[in-house]
Amino acid sequence: MTDINEILIREYVATRGLSQSSYHGMKYTLAHYCRFQGKNLQELLDEADAEEEAGVRWKKTKLKKRLTAYMNYCKETLTLNSAKHYLKLVKQFYHHNDIEIHKLPPFNDKNALMREPITAKDLPTREILQQAVEIAEPLMKALILFLVSSGMSKVDARNLTIQNFLDATKRYHDEDDDIMTAIAKMKEFEGQLIPTWNSRRSKTKKFFITFNTDEATRYIMAYLELRNEKLKDNPENGQTELKPHDKLFKISTHYFTMKFGQLNDALNLGTVGGRPEEGIKGYNRLRGHMLRKYHATNLKKHGMDTYSINVMQGKSNGAVNDVYFFEDEDALFREYIEAIEGVLIMTDVREYNIYSPEYVQMEEENNELRNELTDMRADLDFLKRKYEEGSS
What we know:
This protein has helices at residues 3-16, 20-37, 41-53, 62-77, 80-96, 126-135, 138-150, 154-159, 162-168, 179-186, 214-233, 253-266, 288-301, 306-313, 319-327, 329-339, 357-391; strands at residues 196-200, 207-211, 271-272, 283-284. By secondary structure, the protein is mainly alpha-helical. The protein has two domains: 3-96, no CATH class; 120-350, Orthogonal Bundle (hpI Integrase, Chain A).
């Protein structure tokens, strides 16, 4: 991509406040568009602007011809969703630069390239995930177990900070503890470490509550200890220890995709959803989104309802009901505990102590309420008998 393209794209991303991943997506798409048109972005903008200034009718503009030709090319070479997404980004770029775009021919879905739908049989199995964790480096071990048991998207997981981890695990340590002190205290609760994550999805801006397993927490702790030791030995920009604002998982979007791809290849998992005879590539069987699907599928298999899973994954159930669930975090936690076997990978459920301090306290409070209710019923029965005796 030429320098002028880079300047224009960075200006677009900065003005709109887009993320780094959005920058890479826009850069790739516009490079694809420029290659097809044989011009750079500035030349294409100048051409469209000149036509507007000259009052050329939309149906006779080069821009309409370019966009229509590009749409047809994408439809012939990409899947339907990708083709629509590419055209959408190109149109957004023109709009951002004050170029008017009027009606284009509609997408004809009839002969569109489509991937095969992903089904439960395409998901990695527990045994595959065990193998992946066994051969992975510490970062990927922690990340795999976290994604499987929390259901977070890769974007949301990458955005987490060490402070978010401290907040999620606050019932196991003091509020003002630094990360290494907190980890030392949390080790006393191994077998019980189930963090509570209150966050907002980057994609939809929707709030969600989710949890992750004790085994995932322990692998995260081991990974953070290793990172902290490396900082002591090799300080980065003068930093010798982990700080609250540091990323929980130190991994870029590119590295994330690459490492999952390497694990997928190492285990010979291949791809799913493709149609090779039509030139449509499939998805790697082991990737972040498949772990999110694994989370939903296996919690449902173990008794958790779809409604609650949607709350955990930040999917819409309707605004009123979502608010209710945010006020009933304990109920969601209990459901997760009851279905947790579905997202345990390295631990047998019989070895797994599901009772966190908060859960134990909650059960004790519930028992007290049940006892109080029993006493109240006994008192009512007594008063009822007395009343009946006095009336007779």
